[in-house]
Amino acid sequence: MDVNAYAAPAAGAPLAPFTVRRREVGPDDILIDIKFAGICHSDIHQAREEWGGAIFPMVPGHEIAGVVTAVGSNVTKFSVGDHAGVGCFVDSCRECDNCKAGLEQYCVGHMVVTYNSTEADKVSPTYGGYSTHIVVDQGYALRIPDGLALDIAAPLLCAGITLYSPLRHWNAGPGTKVGIMGLGGLGHMGVKIAHAMGADVTLISHSPGKEDDARRLGADHFLLSSDKAAMSAARNSMDLIVNTVSADIDLNRPMSLLGLNGTMCIVGLPEKPLSVGAFTLTGQRRSIAGSNIGGIRETQEMLDFCAEHGFGSDVEVIAVQQVNEAWDRVVNSDVRYRFVIDIASLND
């Protein structure tokens, strides 16, 4: 079936109307009428070929929320009318140890990314959520709980799970002290989720103007990274820091905030290699680690958790015709905290 979309025709070119050919609904597939698609900074990196390996024309979008309008003959997880979402991948090898463990995001076979990738045949390109419809295997779709509005749910499929997974893995909760570095699309979800988990939450930022928002979102403390006295006073005080910053920064000072056996988990993606001194790590047996989105089971758990606690992402809804302007604003950090495209505007 042919569907309306917005695509980058070439690296760095403005997005423009495009027609996508979606496969017919197979026995294990569902058809989703996309209502909202979140804008992730990685959409911009890939469409501008800043990470290499780009496939054009490219239809970005891996924060997809909509309504199921058709189901295949073998489908048991969804019915027509259900709210459903699609995140950063739409298939994987299903055979490696990671896939079998429900950690499909770490597939070592062929993980089929939602866009800028190829299907299981390794030939057919994938197209993302800046489009009116998507066909996906039921095993790689997520059920969006009834109490979660689709516009604020869409960014959870990337930004939400990117923070939920490390917070869960490192056991954030009552009695733990968690730092969130950066208050953007990722960081604001980190503050919300860590607070809902019951952790003592500190937002670490170089922007003093973000303190009020940090506390509104659930931070118990605000730490200005340029305040040397405050940073010194907070040394050795945290169990976990989730670093959402994508700028190139010296990690030694924020790492010193970690206490014995503390971990800094990297989820932001700076261009240059990370820099941290050996003494910073050895002094308190500190660790530095990374985390990448989440598997299907954990992502569903995250959606249910957010619905149970009554929150989604803070969003600014735009028409698709505003997407190029919105991308420029994302690059300039001029959004609080996630743009979401109203896909109905694709038919205007």
Automatic annotation (TrEMBL):
PROSITE patterns: ADH_ZINC (PS00059). Keywords: Metal-binding, Oxidoreductase, Zinc. Residues 12-331 form the Enoyl reductase (ER) domain. InterPro entries: ADH-like_C, ADH-like_N, ADH_Zn_CS, CAD-like, ER, GroES-like_sf, NAD(P)-bd_dom_sf. Its cofactor is Zn(2+). GO terms for molecular function: oxidoreductase activity, acting on the CH-OH group of donors, NAD or NADP as acceptor; zinc ion binding. This is Unannotated protein. It comes from freshwater metagenome.
